[in-house]
Amino acid sequence: MEKYDLLICGAGAAGMTAGVYGGRARLKTLILEKGVVGGTAYSTRELANYPGFYAEDVSGPFLMKQMAKHAERFGTKIIKENVIELDLEGDTKVVKCKKGREYGAKALILAFGTEPRLLGIPGEKELRGSGVSYCATCDAENFEGDIVAVVGNGDAALEEAMFIAKFAEKVIIIVIHDEGIVDCNKVSAEKAFKHPKLEFVWNTTLAEIKGDEEVESIVMRNLKTGENTERKVGGVFFYVGLVPQTACVKDKLEMNRQGYIITNEKMETSVPGVYAVGDCREKYLRQVVTAAGDGATAAVAAEKYLEEVEEYEDMLQEDKKILLGFWSPLSQLSIEALSRSEQIIAEYEDAAKLYKIDLSRKQMLAYKYEIKEPASFVLLSKNAVIDTLHASNPDTLEATLRTWLA
Fold first, then answer.
1. CA distances from 106 to 4, 21, 80, 95, 262 (A)
2. What would the pLDDT profile of 272-282 be if each residue is shown by its tens digit?
3. Scanning 26, 108, 219, 243, which has the fewest C-beta atoms within 10 Å of its C-beta?
4. Catalytic residue among 57, 87, 138, 387
5. pLDDT tens digits, residue range 163-218?
């Protein structure tokens, strides 16, 4: 098993930004990616809202390639691997891949991303790759001079419809809402409404895709009248939502009902040393810029976590008894208790050593020893827990500590 300091699963904007920060922190960093480096952003033709590129067009492929170069410049490795299983139980997290290789690291960042949601309508599965597509960048040029349908009305749907229109004769956009209502930003909506090649069909869903070996026509159903209308088209592009690719960590991490991984503001998951970033985590906005922010945050948090792990491993080499004192600058009780414990431990310096742990900055050992509040102490001897104590009473604290250390 190849071992690294920091292992990142997924090479989208979030994963590669984490790779940049991990490499710059001098961590031995590896990114695993099963598909095209760049993730979902790689299939976006135009990134008009990425900061710093307002004055010039920037495509998804261009920006993602630059991010990959940036990460590799700082020593981060990017390897093509399909992650199929993860073991998150031990101190070393193990990632198992389809080709049989295994990789281990003490800190793991999950940047799995999402996949397009399937509607499951007749013809969708059967004709996927034969006129049914989920990526305009990949397939739009195959529909030169055709009539093409787009299902969806969000940012991706309208922006990709305008890109498809560069090749297609006409693009039919199927919208479930009343006329004039779309779920995308106003700038894209205004451009789309004015576009001469775009035709909006309102209050409508796609009922069926027809064709023998390739897409030949679609059946649309009006939601208000129930009437079905068949139109000849050469292709259908779907933009109806995303599904997080988190199946391999189901029941291993805390997730919401939709399968998105739940994290805190540091991108920490319910398992210490494991972080989730980008589109696969529960969040308000899924954009390249927010994914990059997630990656930076997680990598810095992972760096601090690895420092805690290193300190802990060094601490275990001590021949003396170890007293862990958990405190917080927001708890006066813990400050007073820590000060008193320092005075007592000084009397037993040959037999014991005090390690102070600020719970406002470090959580690894608190999780390991199930410490819920400051002003708590854990006594260790040869890596075994002898006792724990919450210092609610100064007199009790002193008596207990002297008994422990005697």
1. 8, 16, 21, 11, 20
2. 999 999 999 99
3. 26
4. 138
5. 999 999 999 999 999 999 999 999 999 999 999 999 999 999 999 999 999 999 99
CB-CB neighbours of 273 under 10 Å:
24
Could you tell me the two tokens for 374?
A: 């400051």
Return the amino acid letter for 307. Answer: E
Q: Which residue has the tokens 């700082």?
A: 74
Quick one: tokens of 175?
Answer: 């919208």
What is each CA distance from 236 to 72, 116, 198, 265, in whole angstroms? 37, 14, 14, 39
Set 139, 146, 155, 279: catalytic member: 139
Q: pTM above 0.85?
A: no
Is 135 catalytic? The answer is yes
- 138 belongs to the catalytic site: yes
Cα–Cα distance measured from residue 64 to residue 209, given in angstroms and rounded to the nearest whole number: 34
